[in-house]
Every structure is written in structure tokens, then in C-alpha cells.
Amino acid sequence: MHIVDVALLIAEGVQADGKRSVLGVSVSLSEAEVHWRTFLAALLERGLHGVTLIVSDDHAGLKQARQATLPAVPWQRCQWHLQQKAQAYVPQQALRAEVAQALRDIFHAPDREEADRMLEHFTKRYEKIAPKRTEWAQENIPEGLTVFALPQAHWMRLRTTNGLERLNREIKRRTRVAAIFPNVEALLRLARALLVEIDEKWKIGKIYLNMKSEN
Question: Which long-range contacts (CB under 8 A, 24 or more apart) does 41-45 make?
């Protein structure tokens, strides 16, 4: 028996009525750029249009594929993943909680102008004791502030990939029983069945985003 690890690529979106929808799923050998690009291109070929924001982490393959297929669409980098990444640039253990709180304050600023001001203060405070962290923050934190251009009522939902992470956990929970699939088609059939079930619940469930909100 030859066992091969594969990647399950999933995209979800919020429609004009404010409800979530599973946009697509695919099984690939990895999360390399070529596989993400093929996946996104297939969504566009099937009629995906009107995309106004992409929310994801900073995965290199996905980032490159997004830039190739949807280059004009604004990108919101997941703030939770940014928080986790930032810890690698904190040299002193004692400063980790302080830095984490400072980043949370930036992400929860009342508007983009204040977030930028707080980021500038953050970088000036640490530029001498942690220059690498300062350089990283200047280059990366603004990627997590795109959400400020949206109505304030949408910030909480779209600042992270938490919704998608919950979806992924549910898929893992439901597929863990099988553990090993005889082929790609078997995995894809199960994943699709589970996602159709979830999508149906979303259609009759509560509105995820109030699309009429202006502030």
C-alpha cells in the first residue's frame, strides 16, 4: 500500500444577501501555487464574480495564486495568523504578552487612521531593542488593516479566517473516522457531501453579514 498526503482546498464566500456559501472544494497534492491557481481559476470559470475582498493567511502558494488570478481584489491578511507570526520576532519572553496586546490594540482601533498612528508608535518604541521586529511589523501589519475600508459592522467577521478555520475543523472531525481513503475521488465525494450539508444549513440560517450596513 502506498499512502500519499494530499491537501483539501476549500473556499467560502459571503453572498449579496449576507449569507455564507461554500464556493468550491478540490483535492490537490499540495498547497503549492500551481494547485491554488488551478482551484481559483476553476471558480472563475464556473462563474465566480463580484469579489470585493479576499481574506486569507499569508500562505505563499495561495498568495501567489491570488495575485495571478484576482490581482485587483483587495486582500485582508488574517489578523490571528499575524499575531501568531509576530511572536517569532519577539526576542524576550517577557515582552511577548506586551507585544501581543499592542497588536490587538492596533487591530481593534476605531479607524484606519488611528491604527496607522498606533502602528507608528509601536515601531518607534521597539526599533532600538528589536529592529527585526520593527522591520517585520512595518512590512506586514498593514496587510491586516485592509478591513478598515469596509463598514465597521463587518470588521469582526472579516478581520480573520476564523470562519473558514471552523469549517476546516468540522471537515476534519467528520473525516477523521476514515483516516485513510482508497483514492482521491473517495475523499472528494465525502468532502463534497459534508460541504453541501453545511451549505444548506447556511442558506436557511442567520445572515452572516448585514450587507445594508453603512457604518
Answer: 41/69, 43/11, 44/69, 44/70
For the stretch 60-84, pLDDT in tens is 999 999 999 999 999 999 999 999 9
10 Å CB burial of residue 12 (0-12, 13-18, 19+) is buried
- C-alpha 72/C-alpha 52 separation (Å) is 9
Task: Dump pLDDT digits (tens) for 107-132.
Answer: 999 999 999 999 999 998 878 777 77
Burial 92-107 (b: 16+ CB within 10 A, else e): eeebeeebeebbeebb
Q: Measured at the alpha carbon of residue 77, what is the angle toward residues 91 and 29, in degrees to the nearest 5?
A: 95
State the amino acid at position 53 in one-letter form. L
Torsion over CA: 39, 41, 44, 45 (sign): negative
Asked whether 94 and 108 are in contact (CB, 8 A), the reply is: no
> The C-alpha cell of 27 is what?
483535492
Residue type at 85?
Answer: K
Average pLDDT in the chain: 91
| Residue 33 CA to its chain's centroid (Å) | 16
- Predicted local confidence at residue 214, as pLDDT: 66
- Rounded distance, CA 130 to CA 149, Å? 30
Q: Which residues pair with 28 in a beta bridge?
A: 7
Global pTM value? 0.90
